[in-house]
Every structure is written in C-alpha cells, then in structure tokens.
Amino acid sequence: MQITRSTGDPGAGAYIQIRGQNTITGSNQPLIVVDGVPVSNSSLGGGVDGVVQQSRLNDINPSDIADIQILKGAAAAAIWGTRAANGVIMITTKKGKKGLNIEFSSSLSLDYVNREFQKQDKFGQGVNGNWAANNALSWGDRIADRSGSDSFNTSGAKFVSEDGSVQYPITHKGDQTTYNQSNRDQVFRTGVTWNNNLSISSASEKGSVYFSASDWNQSGVLAGNSDYRRTTGRLNFDYNVNDNLKLSMKNTLAKVFSNRVQMGSNLNGLYLGYLRTPADFDNSDYFGTYYNAAGVGTMNSHRGYRNYLGSAAPTYNNPGWTLNKQVNTSDVTRFIVTPELQYKWLENSTFIARVGYDQSTDRRITYFPYRSAASTSTGSFGDNFITESELSMHLINQSTHKISDKISMDATLGYLYTDRNFFQIGGSAINFIITDQDRYGFFNSTNDNMTPFNSISRVLNDRYYGMFDFDYDDKIFLQLATAAEASSTFADRFWSPSASLSYEFTKDMKIPTLSYGKLRASWGRVGVAPPAYITGTNYVSAGSASGWGELLDASYFGGSIYRSTTSGNPNIRPEIKQEMEIGADLKFLNNKISVGATYYSNTINDIILATAVPASTGFTNKWLNAGTISNSGFELDWNIKLIENQDFTWNLYGNIGTNKNIVEDLNGSKSIFLAGFTGVSSRAVEGESMGALWGGKWKRDESGKLLLDADGFPQPDAEEGVLGDPNPTWKGGFGTSVSYKGLSLNVLFEACQGNQMWGGTYGVLNYFGVSKETGEEITMTADQGTTIKDYYGMTAADWVAPNDDGTYTVRGKLEDFGGGNVWLNQGWYTTNGGGFGPVGEQFIYDASWFRLRELSIRYDLPQTVLRALHVPGATIGFTGRNLALWTNVEGLDPETNLTGVSNGRGLDYFNNPGTKSYMFSLSIKI
Amino acid sequence: MKRYSILISAALSITLLFNACKKDMTDINATNPNQFSGSEGRLMITGAELANVLLNEGEAARMAGIFSGYFTGADRQYLSLQQYSYGAGDFDNIWGTLYAEGVAQCRLIKSQAAASNDLVLHSVAAITEANLLLTASGLWGDIPQSEACNDNVAMPKYDKMDDVHTYCISLLDEAIKHTAGSSAHSGAYAGGHDWSQVANTLKARALLRKGDYAGAAAAAANGVEAGKDLIANHTADVPGAWNLYFDFCYWNRGGYMTCENSYLSTLLDGDSANTAKRHNAKTDEDARFAYYYASGTPDNYSSRDPNYLDGIFASYSGYTLVGYVENQLILAECASRSNDDDKALEHLNNVRTYNAAMFAEGKYDAYEIADFGPGKMIDGTDASKALLKEILTEKYASMFGQIESYCDLRRTKNAIGVPANSGTEIPARFLYPQSEINANDNVPKDQLDKFLPLTYFQ
Questions:
Q1: CATH architecture classification, A2-112+193-262+326-534+569-691+726-755+849-925
Q2: Selected residues 339-358 of chain A with any CB under 8 Å from a CB in chain B
Q3: Where would I find the beta strands (DSSP E) of A818-862?
Q4: Any CB–CB contact under 8 A between A716 and chain B?
Q5: Which of A404, A436, B343, B440 is deepest in the core (most CB within 10 A)?
C-alpha cells in the first residue's frame, strides 16, 4: 500500500493506493469503512493551483481507532461492491473495557520544513547583466561589483510600510546586501501541534461504553494563515438486552477549522512569489501606504519585488501578503451515527441490521484582498458551502452449519443499500467597492460582479450478496462469494463472483523448522460503477478560453447555451476488474520467523474515460469504455523475533512490494491528460505506466543523438512524448523494534525507488536566474571567450570586457551537448533551457528516496513512580517522523504531488513544502 | 413467542426505515440536474460567434502577430515563441475553440435553422463557420472539413486547402442571398454591420489568397462599407468580456508580449531609425502610433507595449474581424495587380481618408501617382511597384494584430520585408495539434514542418 501526502500543509489530503492504479480518470482511492458503514474519503478540489484541501478521512480521531484492516484483492468486493475495487480500509473503533478506564494523553509536536530550494545570491534583480527594479528576473548585475549604497529620489513617490519604514524610488543600486535568509525566515516557522485526548470506558456483561473527546490544534510551518484544529467527540455503546438481542450505537462528531495557503501555478501562491524573489530584494515590508508623486496616499497597498513601491498590485504576491492577507478557510462539521441491532434468532443464526449516516458540511471561504496579484487585483471573494452525505442500510444474516464431521460452513447473506448525496452552493464576487476593509460577504461587489453557483449529485446503489465459508478439518478453507449490484448510474444489475482457497499444509505434513505453513489463492471479478450524469451530452453556458486565462463568457453577451465539448455516452458500462492472487504464509523456528508472500495480477477492462478525441470531431472529449490497464506485483513481508523473553524483545520487520502497471489500451488515443500543464503533464499513455510524465522533448536522430543547431544547442522536437514514469519500481519499509521492561524503541525506514518526477519549480527557477545553478560563474580563456557562443549567438567578449590576463569571467556555465562547448546563460535559460521553454525532458529527475520515516521511544513509568503519582499507568514518549531523507532531488521532498489526491502523479510546480516533526507525548491512566 | 415478536418488530422497523429512505433507482441519474440537455439555435449562435472571436483575436492572433512583426514575445513561454520555438501541443486549445466550440455549434445551428426554415439564422451560422474555417485554413492549409464535426466519424479526413476555401465560398454565396441589410443574431458583435457585406469581404479574402484577383475584386465590390465593420464587442468592460489583448497583455500575462523593437512599430514611430518608416510630406503617423502603443506609465510592462490602456487594445475596445479598410485594400491590391493603378490609388486614398478621420491628429493627405516611383515620396523601381508595396504596407499597418496579415505576408512572399526574429524565414505555418496527432490517423504526416509553405502560398 502506498500513502502519499500531497504537501506538508496541516490536514492535507493523502493519496492512498493499494496494489497500483485501477482506473484512469475515476478515483483510485480505496473505500473506507468505519464500524461496518462506508464513509466518505473525499478530497474535493486539487488542481494545479489553489489550496491543498483536507481529506475527510482526517476527520476521524486516530486515538479512537482500535483496529485497521486492509482488504486488498478484488475478493474484498464481495461485500462492499463496486466501490471496493480499489481495496477497502476497514476501521474499527474502540469498545469499552471491563472496569472503569480513564485515560488522558497529551502530545506536543514540532514541525519543520524538511527540504528547501537553494537560491543564488551572487546576481541581482534585472536582465542582461543590468540591475532593473520590478523586473521578473534575477539576471541582473553582479552584486559584488556594486559600489556605495543605494541612492533614492526622495522628492516624489514613496511607500510607507506599517512599521513606518519608507521606500523611495531607487536611482542607483549600490547596496550589496542580500536577503535570501530573511526572506526565507519570513515564510517558514516552527509548526506547533498540541493534541489532547481523553477517553472514558467501561464494560459489564450487560454491555459496554466508550467515550472520548479530543482536540488537535496545529499551526503549520508556513508563517501565516496556516492552521488546522480538529475537535472530536465519540460515544460508542452497546447493550445486551438478553442473551439473543443486542443493540448498539456508535456516534462521532468532528469539528474541523483550518486556514490554508495558496500554492502552485498561481500568481497569488506562496512558493511562486517567494522562490522567484531576487536575492537583493527584501520582502519584509509588504503592506503599507503608497504615495504618488503628488503626495496622494493609497492605503492598504501591496509591495512586492515586481512593484517595489506598491503603486499597483505587483505581478506576483509578496509572500508576506500571501501568508497574512489572503484568507482560505475551511469550516467542517461532520457526524457519523451507526445504530445497529443484532438478533440471534436461531441457535446457529444471527441477524444484523445496521444503518449508517455520515454527513459533513464544509464552508470554504476564499478571499483575496484588493491589490492581490494579477486577476485578483481588484479583490476577489468566494464562498462555497458543500454538503456531503451517505446513508447506508445493511441487512446481514450470519449462520453456521455443520455439514459433516469435518466440514462446516459459515453463510453470510446480505443486502446493502447506499444513498450518496452531494450538494454545493456558493458564489464568487470580484471588484470590491470598499477596498480597505476585509469583509467576507457579497455586499462588497456590485451585482454585475457576482456569480452564484450550485450543483447537486445523487447516486444510489444496492446489492445482494452471499458469502459461503467452508472449512474442512480446520486446514482447508474455501470461500465462495457472489453479489448482484445495481446502481442508478447504469442500467443492468451486475454480477461479481469471487473465490478463495487456502490450505494449511503443515497440518498434514511435518517439515523440519517449518512451524506453520499456509498456501492461498483467490480470484475475483468486480464491476466499477460509472460516475453519474455521463450518459448524455450537456448543453452548457457558452464560453471560450485559452490556456492563459483570458476568456470570453457568453453571459456578458446576452447569454448563450450551446453544446458541451465533452460528448456523453448512453451506452456506458461498468468498468470490470479481475484479479487473481496466490501466496503463502510461513513461520519458521517455532514461529520466530514469519514470512508472507503474495503475487497478484489484475486487469481492468472497459475503463471509463472522458477520452480526448480529435477536436475536428466536434468534441474535445468523449466518455467511452475505452481503456484497459493491468497491474501485477509481488508483496513480501517478514517479522523476525531475534530475542523474546519476559523483559527483553527484539524484532526485525519489514515489507517490500513491487507493482508493474501498464496502460494496455486506450482505444486509439495515444495519451490522455490526467493532470498538469500544457508543457508537462501526467498522462495515461498506451504501453506505459499510468501517470506517465509527458511533454516536449529534444529533437533527436534515429540513434537517439541530439540534433543540434548551428551553434551546438539542442532543439525542441515538434512532437511531444513520454518523458518519465512517476511510479516506483519498488517500495518497502524496514524496521526494528526493541523493548526492555517498560522501555521500547521503534525505528522504521522506508524506501521508494525507481520513480521519476517533473521538477517544474527547478526549471522555472533556472528561467528566473534564481536557482543555485544559474548563479555559477566561469572563466573562459581568451580563445573560448571569443568563439564559444551563447544562445543569442553572442560570445563572452560581446558581453564583458576581458580580465587583465585576457580571460573572460562570465555568469553561466559551459556545456557540451555533443557539438562542442556552448555557453549556457540568460539566453539559454530564459528560452529552451528553462522551465518555460517547450522542452520538459530536461527537468525529469530520478525521484527515488529513502527515509527514516519514524523513530519512536516509549517509556512506561515503573510501578514505584506510578504509586507515588497515584495513577495506575503512565507512558511518556517521543516520536520523530521524517527525520532523515536521502534523495537526489534538489529542493523538495519528492513525496509531493501538485495535483493533490488526483490520478496525475509526479508533478512539482511551486508546491507547498513537506515537513518533518518531533513529537513528545504523555499518556496517563487515571 | 417473545423471540418472534422481537424478530417481527425488528423486521417491521427495518421495513419502515427502508421505505422512508429507499428511493426508486431508475431514472435518478437519467437527467443531469446541473445541466441542460438541449438548446435552441438562436441561443447557441452567440457561443459560436465568441469562439470565432477567440480564434481570431486570441492565442492564434498573438502567435501570428509575433511571426508578422507586430509583437515581441518577451517573457516565459512567449520568449520561446519569439524564437519560433513552438510545438504541436501549443495548438490543442486553439482547435478545441475552432471545432468543438465553433464549427460544430455552427453546424448544429444550421441543421436546426434548416428544419425551421430560419434562413437568416442559417446564414449567420454559415458565415461564422466560413470565418472560422478560412482563418484556420490560412494557418494550417489542409484541415478537416467534409468529415469534421460528424458524430459518425472518429477520425475526420483532412481536406485540401483549396477544397476548404471552395466550401467556405459556397457557404458565403448562399448566406449573401438571405442577409442583405441584416445584422441579426450578433450577440458577440457590436452591431451596425451588414451580414451580406461581411460575407462578401470574407469571400474576397478567400479569393485573394487563391490569387483570383478578378473574383476577389468582384466580391469586395459588395463588401464592407465604411462604418459597417464586423466588430467583436468588448464594451461591457468586465473580465469575461474584455478585449482579449488587454486580457492577455495586461491582466493575465502582463509582460509576456510587448511591441519592443517590433517591425510595425518601427514603421510608425516618427523617431525610428528604420528607413522604411512611413512619415513623409503627406503622412504623419504619430497619432496612429499613440493609438497602437503605450509606454511610460506604471501600468506598462516594457518601453513599448501594445496600447491596452486607452488605445486599440483597451479593455473596452472592439476588435475588427472583417472591415472596411481590409475590403478597400483588397480592392486596391486587385486593381494594382490588374494594372489599373488609378483605381488602386483611389482605394488606397479611401483608406487614407478613413485614417485621417480616425487619427485626427495625424496626417494622411491623398497620394497621387506622381508620388510613387524611383526617388519619389514612395520609393520603388517603378510607380506601379511602389504603389503596390504601399498598398500592402498600408494593409499591414492598418490590420495591426490581425491574423490575415500573416496570410498576406506569406502570400506575397513577404514583399514588404518584415524581418525574421530568428534565422532568415518567418514560419510558414502553425503545426497540427498534438490532440490530432494522437488520435487522428488522417493528419498529413508530410506537413509537420513549420517552414513548409501552405499550398496557396508556395
């Protein structure tokens, strides 16, 4: 199983993948089942810009969890149906235990950014080797060559910041101070999380009760409006009315409030404004009053390196503005209730009726004050209220039958009905009337500048299933299951059969050193329901946009409703997944060594895709059952008990998994866009792994040699192609746990190898001349200085005067692409050699990593101390997460993904950074 | 008994719950509650027209403008464009606009209009379709037409450039019959035009590309009159309705595209060192220069930006798609090429009169034949050649930002001498989009070279 946090933002959604990708544009996320009812694990939102949204899975208080079970194979679908095709995560919450148990635990976690980009500090803002105010680039002058200090024109316009410091127009740049460190410190801080949890539980023969309350209060590592606070309450109880009838109820309520920070390809995003800032620009005064030449002041002005007097909104936000002035809140209320009745109506037969209701509401506010960068410079406000609910009803009858002396059978017959609803309503407003008061309401815009929206979706599902578990002599186990499912999104009831067989062969044969051995095999087939509303072609409000943001919206031209560019398909069928697996569980040397091994392979046919079709067909996309993908892999886990006695235990454990995913067929499409940019994207490409990185390449001859231009520079190819694979060849974890009396230590390393990523940020920092690489200087010989050309066709001698010895010292580096040295400088990095050029190939990196995922130490206080404290138990602990990371990727934790929990993988473009944390905890039983 | 009463009450409570909660599954998702499943032609036409505006005023026009010496790619991806470094992926979006938002809608509207015998609506959709396809064929040459936007064809074939033009002319001929004096169904436009005149000028544009000067002149004779231009309407002055050059150059992608050192600006700049600059005893281009370019304010990104503040590309400024000036200069060129210099001069002077009114601070005195020739005000090897070059140059200067200028440059083998930004040639064509290469086997594989001339421009 692979779990990837999108970013280090508090509460950020995590991408969970069990055994490879199973679909292309649908969700690859597993079904989450809590206490027997399916619940939402949605992460709504997640494009190439905006904020990282939370996953609703995070609403569950981890302290309430008693057990997590992961059902991997398609056989899991027997009960849970089409939504289980990606596997099931079964979570069981705690029950009361005998007596009265009160436990209080508290932890403090300190979080730090774990990887940062290095920036050059040798060259200033500007272009062509000259300092230039407000310029986007850092291709300016050599800072060390400056003399004197800055001179200002103090007679005209100026900017006065909040703290009274004044900025005047610079007439001469003489100051050599650089600000990389202070600009960095403006953006990052130590994240602090307080987590308090109280639980009370009790049980008797009549029933049990478990109560908990928790509060998670986190401020993120980004030094501004980045926080997450989750407060939960839970009450689980069950009551045995008599020997046969049992009633139970599980309730939980969560309130989550958080502030998020804009990121990604977004002129209002944090990293974009921060990382592009030149070394010689001080970001600290970002908010104040701009006075024009006539002395007229404009309050609430925004100063950034693209407009250092704050005369208008800068082209990019100052990071201080992004962090402190913009507001992106999410206010979630969620409850899940699960009443259940169990009745043993025959000696061998129990009937269970269970209802689950999971509802969450999320109010999201997006607020860009007046003078935020770019299209939000006249203010932008959005309010979005989202309600999701899922009602499920589950009827089950479980019975046990003795067929003969040696054969018994457990039968489960069930019916599951679910009703999922999604509703959102909201609006956006732009062009604020009052510009200097922050109000999160629509009244600050005229009617023309408001856009309301709403949408609903409802999907019903029901399924009948039967599961029969045969047991022969407690050594051979056979499970046969079948289900018939119907969904409101497709017409015909769909059958999914599965079978699994296991044999504990050590019961029949004695093999030396082998204390336990089991072989298992299973096969299953499951359908995946199509999404709602794709059978028809919609007619939508007309509007045309380019990829650059400019658009024509028909609502300003009297309105127009025309045919959508995506074609519906009335004949859409469910996707069909088939999976087989074989495996063995072995224990050696008196169970000291246990090993589990599994090989699986699955094929998913009829994948539903909004397939990109040639625009000349009149549509850009069409919904089709268009694809086939397959996964095969090998999973191995082990546990070795090196030492095991009363006081001292020492285990080595680990797991390793490979998954080979191939997109077998896309029905004629060469590739399908999943996420990313026009330049580089993550796609499904026939014959490649899902999520393959795709974009512009260098022009090459048939032998793969670069085709160079006359000066020796490589040239972009007219056609795009596959650049890399974001999927690892293997992943694994290796750990050891040691305990001695009350002290225990656990160390876990994780590895992910063979995956690639697109370093979009790095490429763009090259473009801007901000990256470390672009700050290099070289000295060319007199000969080189007059012959080696840069991308402009100029030589060093055209740019600078020679040194005293006739050599030339210039910015940039020499590179031989195969046609002799060429000089890489501004000309190269701002065109084909930079992140905005057409060639993504050069920024594909090996993103393999190896990390110390967790180091934890726990100490159960000894009885002597407990007696003194008058408590029955107490534990103190330390947990470090992500403490060390080994990777070749520069500047960021490769375990990141720009497009959140989407199927597009391996993209980095000004993502918010990942974190490492140190957590100290205390837990007391009262 | 108790056992059964519990069982019965359990069953009963579940039945109650079930009936309350359970809804009939059939039809729940049959209709999308968030979208319509159909529309009417008269409501669709504005959308198709906006696609036409986006095609002619948006990304394609900016790229053509960079190739034509109108604009200078100055930042990010536009720096690469400036060096003629572009790939198939850069055109996916444009074809989505062209076909899915444009041609396909026009054809749906036409079939609805035909069913209801609404000849005017049918004609407006046909003119819009012809405008879209003519622009596209001028950029790519061979493009899908006969099998395009047909639900039964997954891989439309590519029709020859000449066949596409013939088809468009037939659309226009039919539309001309039903639209005299009409400006109906013009949601995207400022109004005041006459559809039949627009269709005639479009037809003249098509025939001129083909080199059919007599045909072009005949069509242009009934083309757009002064004051009756087809103008994309941006007067609402809100995002979503803005002039697209303003939207791109100022609002969304400030600094990406300027006019620094652009060839046209050196022709119009009175202080320019360009010896071909247009100022002479009868001509003062300062006012036009000021209308075209802006610099020196805090809202500018470079020392010479396209004038998106208060000039040609202001947020509220309309954008001419088919106009009087182009029509007059087609007439002028056709006359010149038919050796009727007097007539050519007459049409050129019509434009100068128009300019004099448009740019009141400037000077556009009427030329005489005597002004042309070796060593004359308009220099050239002979008067006729000098006159033709002046007609082409005036057209180039008048149609700032328009795609058709890029067609004119390639058609005339760059007679007015716009320098290449990189190398010696300006690109001969746009590339077929990656989305077509990926999934349409009919893409002409022998036409993927950006320096391969289009059939008409060989």
A1: Beta Barrel (2.40)
A2: 341, 343, 345, 351, 353, 355
A3: 821-824, 844-846, 849-860
A4: yes
A5: B440
